[in-house]
Write a structure and sequence with these properties.
Largest sheet of chain B: 2 strands, antiparallel
Strand content of chain A: 15-25%
Structural class of chain B: mainly alpha
Largest interface: A-B, 33 and 23 residues
Strand order of the largest sheet of chain B: 1-2
Radius of gyration of chain A: 21 Å
Radius of gyration of chain B: 24 Å
Number of strands of chain B: 2
Structural class of chain A: alpha/beta
Distance between the termini of chain A: 32 Å
Oligomer: heterodimer
Order of helices and strands of chain A: EEEHEEHEHHHHEHEHEEHHHEEH
Number of strands of chain A: 12
Chain lengths: ~325, ~300
């Protein structure tokens, strides 16, 4: 099956005063049709920047190289004209803080109409616009949608705002939705509802979703595949069940081990020691080496190439955890 | 935004004007004797006494004040000792000249300052942004009397292109307008730029583009209208600085407007004229700010709903 979105050796660096900070350092991934892919990793691992690069939403201070392919064809992500034709109708994106993601001085209706008008070939009249907006709001589970059109964002809760943003992004019926930590700013109960909504949308529209999140639990419940990023690289990827069951990269194992577990006798948290290095501190070797329990001499000088494990599991490590010991510790 | 809110605002505005007029009334009468100014220091005591008696200046100040208010309510704003005619007549004669100067300056300021600020913000950190900001710092750091004198030196004395004083032709208008516009446009450019930069970095701009708007569409539909809201406040101050700048500029270029009349009337203790001009200025300021308050509630729904307790 051909991938919908693919990146090949994607690099993004931000221009600083004198130097450049490499934030994404050679990312390869592909997103298939109708699949939900989780993108996890600590803050600063380049998850959001990778997504913004694919949307063509990085500002002019970002230096891009490598390739982004959409539907098999290369995409010129830095061309605003070209990308604006795709945004909203091929790929769309929702963001972390739904309250500030909507224009505070325009009504929900006006902002929805704008999106609908952008993506309709005919010129829908006011009544038609309102009908379509109400249908979209109903699709994303907004109660009493007729009354919401005249409301301003500050009159809605965070969860409702996120639903409105999702409705706006669905106006062009895109094939891929990138959700950049869509629930981080929301209450826990609302989080679950939004995640459930994303899954429903995937099922009803056959849409692909990239779910950027810190929450490994959400990934386990929601996603088909998972990409683990560390310092601008994908260090491990594969089907969620495989990766979570037997992580091969020590970083993935560290992430999983740092989750609190209710079923274990030992209730203490096991954080990964050390801090994520700053972009300019990363040398030629594996970026995780300074924090890695398995690291040896070669790890500090050479970058480990990706290698296949079982069932499409892919990891970049010179001293991976063996399948047996990985399963045993979970 | 309800009737009660508007009534409260109106009442407060009226009180503000009354307070200003009262203060000016008291200060002017305590700070010098108009009889001496009008008749001269060497006038004989009987003449001065007769003058005081004629204009009620020998009565207690509270009686004078009540008389002034009673007359004002009936549309009588007093007599100009100096011009020897109704004070209102003297003021109204000068008003169009000042309105012309303020109007041209105002329009030019907005036409130059706002686009310059928008352009600088859209090209943030480029050489043109830095250049615009450099010019704007220079523009508002330069006092307008210094700039005015410099212009006279250049255009009137050295090149003899423009008249240095008076009014009547468009040539007379050039230097006074330029003097006032430079500083005002500089402030507007700076303020517009920062308002735009603030808005351009808001997450809703990213959302607007994520749903498919081109960059310039997102700027036009979401950034410009939102950045205009804080600018409205600046327009309120602008009316004040126009009046203040007008006083200096009109004096400098002998422009026969209200500003110049105000300066000469204060010097001559022409009480009624000063009183009217101050009242006009106060009214225009208060009225502009009232208008801005109401517009704010209309432009920014968050403000409107706070006030009505929605």
């Amino acid at each position: 099956m051909q991938a919908l979105l693919e990146t090949r050796d994607l690099h993004v660096a931000f221009a600083l005063e004198q130097s450049r900070a490499p934030v994404v350092r050679g990312v390869d991934f592909s997103i298939g049709r109708g699949e939900i892919v989780g993108l996890v990793g600590e803050s600063g691992s380049g998850k959001s920047v990778t997504c913004m690069a694919a949307m063509g939403l990085l500002d002019e201070h970002a230096h891009l190289s490598g390739e982004v392919r959409w539907d098999g064809k290369p995409l010129s992500v830095q061309d605003d004209v070209c990308m604006s034709r795709l945004r909203g109708r091929e790929l769309a994106m929702i963001f972390q803080d739904p309250m500030s993601a909507l224009n505070p001085v325009q009504t929900i209706g006006k902002q929805l109409f704008e999106a609908i008008r952008l993506h309709s070939a005919d010129r829908p009249g006011r009544r038609e616009l309102a009908a379509r907006a109400i249908a979209l709001l109903r699709d994303v589970g907004v109660p009493a949608p007729e009354q919401r059109l005249k409301a301003y964002p500050h009159q809605l809760s965070g969860g409702l705002c996120q639903r409105v943003v999702i409705a706006m992004m669905l106006a062009g019926n895109p094939r891929l939705l990138i959700a950049d930590e869509p629930t981080t700013a929301l209450d826990v109960t609302v989080q679950a509802q939004i995640i459930e909504l994303l899954r429903t949308i995937r099922d009803s529209r056959g849409m692909s979703i990239i779910l950027v999140t810190h929450d490994l639990g959400v990934v386990a419940q929601t996603c088909d595949r998972v990409l683990v990023m560390y310092c601008g690289r994908v260090v491990e990827s594969g089907p969620v069940a495989t990766v979570f069951d037997s992580p091969r990269h020590p970083y993935t194992q560290g992430l999983l081990a740092s989750l609190p577990r209710l079923d274990s006798q030992d209730r203490s948290l096991k954080p990964i020691p050390g801090l994520v290095p700053q972009p300019h501190q990363i040398g030629d070797g594996c970026a995780f080496a300074p924090r890695c329990p398995n690291a040896a001499g070669g790890c500090y000088s050479d970058s480990p190439p990706p290698q296949y494990g079982e069932q499409d599991q892919l990891f970049s490590c010179f001293y991976p955890i063996s399948v047996q010991s990985s399963r045993a510790t979970r | 935004m309800n009737a009660l809110y508007i009534m409260q605002k109106l009442a407060r505005s009226f009180l503000t004007v009354l307070l200003i007029v009262t203060t000016v009334f008291v200060v002017l009468r305590l700070s010098g004797d108009p009889a001496v100014y009008v008749l001269g220091l060497d006038a004989d005591a009987a003449a001065i006494e007769a003058f005081r008696d004629q204009w009620g200046l020998n009565r207690p100040i509270w009686q004078q004040y009540l008389q002034f208010l009673a007359n004002a309510v009936q549309g009588d704003f007093g007599y100009s000792y100096f011009e020897e005619r109704g004070a209102m007549e003297a003021v109204l004669e000068r008003l169009p000249k000042t309105l012309l100067l303020m109007g041209v300056t105002g329009v030019l300021t907005l036409l130059i300052g706002i686009p310059a600020g928008i352009y600088a913000a859209l090209h943030h950190n480029s050489w043109i942004d830095r250049f615009t900001m450099l010019v704007s710092v220079a523009g508002f750091s330069l006092p307008n009397f210094v700039l005015g004198i410099f212009l006279i030196l250049l255009f009137s004395v050295t090149w003899q292109l423009l008249p240095s004083s008076g009014s009547g032709t468009w040539q007379h208008l050039v230097m006074p307008v330029l003097t006032m516009t430079v500083a005002e446009a500089a402030i507007f450019a700076r303020f517009t730029r920062s308002a735009m930069l603030e808005v351009l970095h808001q997450p809703y701009m990213r959302t607007a583009r994520a749903k498919g708007l081109r960059w310039h569409q997102a700027v036009r539909r979401h950034a410009l209208p939102n950045a205009a809201i804080p600018l409205i406040t600046l327009v309120g101050f602008f009316v004040g600085t126009l009046v203040a700048g007008g006083v200096v500029t009109e004096s400098l270029f002998a422009w026969p407007g209200l500003g110049r009349l105000l300066v000469s009337s204060v010097a001559n203790r022409d009480l009624a004229v000063v009183q009217i001009i101050v009242m006009l200025i106060a009214c225009s300021m208060v009225f502009t700010n009232l208008l801005i308050d109401l517009m704010y509630g209309w432009l920014d729904p968050r403000v409107g709903s706070l006030r009505t307790g929605d």
